[in-house]
Design goal:
- α2 links the parallel β1 and β2.
- This protein is 38% helix and 15% strand.
- The protein has two domains: 141 residues, Aspartate/ornithine carbamoyltransferase (Rossmann fold); 147 residues, Rossmann fold, CATH 3.40.50.
- The protein contains eleven helices and nine strands.
- It is α/β, with parallel strands linked by helices and 307 residues long.
Length: 307
């Protein structure tokens, strides 16, 4: 069996192009499994996986849990809200207590950038980063690129615009790294207050006009406004944001080519995307959700082989 070059999936920055291609090939096989009447394989039946979430999550947590169960792994779920973390227990102690129960792999979401990297240096289990603060979200970037490959045949040479709250987004950074490794051109677009200062140094184009970004791209990945991460006001109101940066059907109808619309979810309908776009034939948002399970199955399966 081919193996990943790494024991952990901490970020897209840390993996090679051949790792990404191996994950995609494996996900293709698992996608076939997911479309069978019996959607389970016994690949990880001897593996125990802990989902350790220090931050709220619906889609990612459900997607990982489903992927684990489809692979026949034993699953334990940990949420910090009703745990001893509230009593002052440290991250290392929390995870070591979970590992004492003979857990092989930890899927972790944390509000602090770098938390999974810190953990990987201090414990023996494989770590999968399910999002660390505003830093990275590697499985989301992998499923996004996989969805583009499925829809357009290849990622190389495609123009992808990431539109919205780039400053607070872990999805944006992972997507930039992943798309560039696979040969796509990347543009970021949003209000100047929501673009990180040195974003152009990552080799991306920067655009402040959403109509120009849509006219340029083959794929628009529209991000949510992350109000829960914003300590100050970055724009006057949601209505104003929607007016200048919301993507609607009229904008798409004015383009001289069809483009693909993506969104990592959850969508603020009527803010960054109107329903007539989110639910249109341009959108592959539900395919992203389906592909998320296949990609996470592939990641878990491949990491289980690397000890």
């Amino acid at each position: 069996m081919q193996q990943l070059s790494t024991k952990h999936l901490l970020g897209i920055k840390d993996i090679s192009v051949s790792d990404i291609e191996l994950i995609f090939e494996t996900a293709d096989n698992f996608k076939d499994v997911l479309n069978r009447p019996i959607k389970k394989v016994p690949s990880l039946r001897d593996i125990t996986i802990a989902n350790v979430f220090f931050e709220n999550s619906t889609r990612t947590k459900l997607s990982f849990e489903l992927a684990e169960k489809r692979l026949s792994a034993d699953v334990i779920n940990f949420a910090s809200g009703n745990s001893s973390v509230k009593k002052g227990e440290t991250l290392i102690d929390t995870v070591n207590n979970i590992l004492a129960m003979k857990v092989d792999m930890v899927v972790m979401r944390h509000s602090s950038p770098g938390a999974p990297h810190f953990l990987s240096k201090n414990i023996k289990a494989n770590i999968v980063n399910a999002g660390d603060g505003t830093h990275e979200h590697p499985t989301q970037a992998l499923l996004d690129a996989f969805s583009i490959r499925e829809k357009l045949g290849d990622v190389a040479g495609k123009k992808v615009a990431i539109i919205g709250d780039i400053l607070h987004s872990r999805v944006a950074l992972s997507n930039i790294f992943c798309l560039q490794k696979l040969g796509a051109e990347v543009m970021v677009c949003g209000p100047i207050t929501l673009l990180p200062k040195h974003i152009a140094s990552l080799g991306v184009k920067v655009e402040l006009d959403v109509k120009k970004a849509l006219a340029w791209c083959d794929v628009a990945n529209v991000l949510r406004i992350q109000l829960e991460r914003q300590q100050i006001k970055y724009f006057p109101s949601l209505r104003e944001y929607s007016l200048y940066y919301g993507v609607n059907k009229k904008m798409l109808d004015q383009l001289d080519k069809p483009i693909v619309i993506m969104h990592p979810g959850p969508i603020n309908r009527g803010v960054e995307l109107n329903s007539d776009v989110a639910d249109s034939e341009h959108s592959i948002i539900l395919q992203q959700v389906e592909n998320g399970v296949a990609i996470r199955m592939a990641v878990l399966y491949l990491l289980a082989g690397v000890k």
